[in-house]
Amino acid sequence: xxxxxxxxxxxxxxxxxxxxxxxxxxxxxxxxxxxxxxxxxxxxxxxxxxxxxxxxxxxxxxxxxxxxxxxxxxxxxxxxxxxxxxxxxxxxxxxxxxxxxxxxxxxxxxxxxxxxxxxxxxxxxxxxxxxxxxxxxxxxxxxxxxxxxxxxxxxxxxxxxxxxxxxxxxxxxxxxxxxxxxxxxxxxxxxxxxxxxxxxxxxxxxxxxxxxxxxxxxxxxxxxxxxxxxxxxxxxxxxxxxxxxxxxxxxxxxxxxxxxxxxxxxxxxxxxxxxxxxxxxxxxxxxxxxxxxxxxxxxxxxxxxxxxxxxxxxxxxxxxxxxxxxxxxxx
Amino acid sequence: xxxxxxxxxxxxxxxxxxxxxxxxxxxxxxxxxxxxxxxxxxxxxxxxxxxxxxxxxxxxxxxxxxxxxxxxxxxxxxxxxxxxxxxxxxxxxxxxxxxxxxxxxxxxxxxxxxxxxxxxxxxxxxxxxxxxxxxxxxxxxxxxxxxxxxxxxxxxxxxxxxxxxxxxxxxxxxxxxxxxxxxxxxxxxxxxxxxxxxxxxxxxxxxxxxxxxxxxxxxxxxxxxxxxxxxxxxxxxxxxxxxxxxxxxxxxxxxxxxxxxxxxxxxxxxxxxxxxxxxxxxxxxxxxxxxxxxxxxxxxxxxxxxxxxxxxxxxxxxxxxxxxxxxxxxxxxxxxxxxxxxxxxxxxxxxxxxxxxxxxxxxxxxxxxxxxxxxxxxxxxxxxxxxxxxxxxxx
Lengths: 331, 395
Ligand SMILES: Cc1ncc(C[n+]2csc(CCOP(=O)(O)OP(=O)(O)O)c2C)c(N)n1
Ligand SMILES: [Mg+2]
Prior knowledge:
The complex is a heterodimer of chains A (331) and B (395).
Chain A: E1 5-9, H1 10-24, E2 28-32, H2 48-52, E3 57-59, H3 64-76, E4 80-84, H4 95-102, H5 105-108, E5 118-123, H6 138-142, E6 148-150, H7 155-167, E7 172-177, E8 184-188, E9 203-206, E10 211-215, H8 219-232, E11 237-241, E12 244-246, H9 250-260, E13 263-270, H10 275-287, E14 296-300, H11 311-314, H12 318-330
Parallel strand pairs in A: 2-3, 2-4, 4-5, 5-7, 6-7, 10-11, 10-13, 13-14
Antiparallel strand pairs in A: 1-8, 6-12, 9-11
Chain B: H1 41-47, H2 52-77, H3 91-99, E1 106-108, H4 114-120, H5 129-132, H6 141-144, H7 155-169, E2 184-189, H8 196-208, E3 212-218, E4 221-222, E5 225-226, H9 238-241, E6 246-250, H10 254-269, E7 275-280, H11 299-306, H12 310-320, H13 326-348, H14 368-382
Parallel strand pairs in B: 1-2, 2-3, 3-7, 6-7
Antiparallel strand pairs in B: 4-5
Magnesium ion binds next to strand 4 of chain B.
GO biological process, one term (chain B): branched-chain amino acid catabolic process
Organism (chain B): Cellulosimicrobium arenosum
Pfam families (chain B): E1_dh
């Protein structure tokens, strides 16, 4: 372990990334509900108000449209607001400001103004929560031009990507896999934010030769477990972590599928019109002659997110991913 | 002379009167005489420095705003604009309030603030780019501290509040230096007051004590809905529940609008926080060129308000005080002609942008999906033989 390497949880890695951004740029400020003394309901902003003050780590009124709308105004004045939406299901009061204002303002002004607002959203399920606390609305935002939509899957990426998101001149939806907040990993905390940008680059997490599993955020770990299980059966599965839904790094996925000839996409969001549908369409278009099987998707159903007691039947489990892998090989 | 309450039209069957019979600040009566009541004293002081030349300046602003409206409306009728929304009838509210602004102040307009953009110096042709369909915006907000017109009702009121919170953080409130202390203004309508974003903006402004003025032009109509569909109490009372000082002003009285705005701006700049202003006025024209007001309001009501035209009122004041100047009026009329001529020429010359501009500024930094779409479109365009470009080609 090098001097600059620390073992951090995903939540702590984001906290460290936020801290660095706050230190680096006086214009960065955090806004959200309960992010101050409490440190956020997931403690991601723990200790930051104490160190940076109430003016830079701001407990806002309980009004999501108000948070986003005033963040836009602050960005127009030269600030870089990082807004926390307490849970995925509560982003909708702000949906109007995000899609009709935040996403369009740079274009509306002919490039004259920038609105570098970051929206942090703990998302995804598997935590046994009540309604509105387990959703995956990323496709709704990726469908809107003008927004960048990303999701880290590891502490290292969480640390690096949050800083890159804050430095981005574009608005960024930063979807944090809340079910993975407490997973630990090594994080190189030196010099992050200065190297090559990873924010919109997919990466091959595990190389393989026979099938490509495409995932992001919370499902990357599931995909890795599936790849390990498949290996027992003599199947070599490559895992690609998209990192970004918008822009979609098609090139990395296509290069992988051209080699493997099979592709399965895994996300928690419903498969119907989800980001996996976009991956499938693009892979089909660009890898048609390399494909041994149709691109398959594993994800949530076209239902309301179910109650906690049965949510594990809804989420793309290891078994459902392996089932899709089997089906892909059966063609 | 005594102040006369012109806010209500009780004799009119469909006047939007209902909740609007509350007292309002007035400095000039519709007949053109100064209001001398003791209640108006503080506001009178705020316009005491406006000499006859300054009053004629306000008249000029209002006439040119009206002329801009008329010209844009006829350009729309000729098919040169896709749509237009007139400010007609609201010139006093817009010009009076905007003339009270300082250069460093920042404005967030909605879409019919042509009097405000005139006062701030935005190029008249640039203001019509959006309505012609060649631009979603049209000007550089930084040039005159006027943000772009916002079409989603109420959204920009939050932006103004956030911007004001930024001004506050920049330390530009309460410095005592009139060249630095900065206020922010959101212009919006009576219909907008029902939007959640306006209420949220009042919450954020109040708890942050932000230097923002909520300038609501109650023109009594939100397309076809009278203001009575938005509230059961006069709109200015919206402010008090949020702890925001509120005032109702005769929106057809340019001096009263100036005075009330000057007071609100001073409060904002000196650290006194937000103010809610209701300027009670009337939308004399249709909502937009696509609208037909005969379907929802009476000629009698329109006529009632036509007799309370804000430009006539200022002319009456100038005449009553012996400062009306025929030569000046002729000069303004000639300036109006020149403006009309210029708009007719310049608007017609605004060409459609190249189709490829839609791929510009989608993001501020490169985005692979946009890049791919842009290249596909360029190749598609190039795939046509020059002969395919003849007019009438079906592609
Ligand atoms: C959120 C939203 N809903 C509906 C519309 C359609 N619309 C455009 S103008 C308007 C009326 C607005 O009335 P008001 O706020 O009084 O402003 P005015 O047009 O009178 O200046 C409506 C309903 C819109 N632009 N935005
Ligand atoms: Mg109105």
